[in-house]
Amino acid sequence: MNKQFTNSAYLSYKSNENQTLFVLKHPLFSATISEFGGQLLNFEPIDSQPLVWLSNSAKLDCSKPIRGGAPICWPWFGPAPTHFEGEPQHGYARNLSWQLESLTESEEQVNLVLTPKLPEPLNEKLQLALKLEYTFNKAAEITLSTTNVGNHAFELSAAIHTYLNIPSSPDTEIPDLLNCVYMDKLTNSIEQQSEPFQLNQAMDRIYHYQDANLEVVNKNTKVQITNDGHDSIVVWNPWKQGSEAMVDFDDNGYLSMLCVESALTRGYSLMPGNTHKLKQKLCFKR
Ligand code: TA6
After folding, report:
1. Which of 23, 32, 33 is nearest to 1 (CA)?
2. Residues with CB under 6 A from ligand 1
3. Nearest Cα to 74, choosing from 228, 281, 269, 265?
4. What atom in ligand 1 is closest to the CA of residue 65?
5. Secondary structure in 3-state letters for 106-164
6. Which is the closest atom of ligand 1 to the Cα of 261?
7. How far is the CA of 90 from the centre of ligand 1 (A)?
8. What is the pLDDT of residues 66-116, one digit of tens each?
9. CA 245 / ligand 1 centre spacing (Å)
10. In this model, does residue 130 exceed pLDDT 60?
């Protein structure tokens, strides 16, 4: 089914394996979101290259989370907390089917709202309402809203686990991270970024970075990332050995991606009736 909107945006629903992909075309950009995971898989501003990276070996058949784009980690980041033992790494959101609740569009931008189809026992257990909002123009803005609809505080962690489409060469830098303290998950130690950040090895780091703005630069590209509601920025590249060990990661995929994730990882109690919003906005900067 294809649908044309009043201005210049087109939304088409493309059946792909066991799910539907929402494909948007607009004079300012093109974008694809998967029903599985509610996940941004592609965003391409007009006259630019894709901003996010999707693995050529990604599974799109709902058998596992989709490797690439901007997966949502929710309601925890990393391994399941003790009281959810045995539950999936990075939570449920990227394994759920999502529905498109609304779409509004104009010549300037398109806005989409998605909600997850949470199975009833899980809904009952979590007592959280979740909403994902995308705003696209020349930038892509992702907002994850969590509301505590229960009677007890919920220890929330989350991430917008974006795979940037950027070469992993030593000239790829994140200058804003200089002097920032980070948790190095590869060595299990707390470190400080005392030298300029350079991408030349496997890394899995949680930077204690709370500023809104961050730039990822190399000699050909500059990506501007604006964050809100985060307490950390996660930077991950599995490098060669790590890529080869994952079935859904191209062996040389590590050469063309870098995960830069807006995240809430350091302990956040979401009180009954309250809403937390985690935001990431991405655009090329010229
Ligand atoms: O965000 C970094 C990270 O937590 C890494 O530790 C790494 O394993 C990655 O996410 C990918 O996790 P996944 O469950 O998608 O294989």
Report:
1. 23
2. 65, 78, 89-90, 161, 185, 204, 234, 236, 259, 261
3. 265
4. 15
5. CCCCEEEEEEECCCHHHHHHHCEEEEEEEEECCCEEEEEEEEECCCCCEEEEEEECCEE
6. 1
7. 8
8. 999 999 999 999 999 999 999 999 999 999 999 999 999 999 999 999 999
9. 13
10. yes
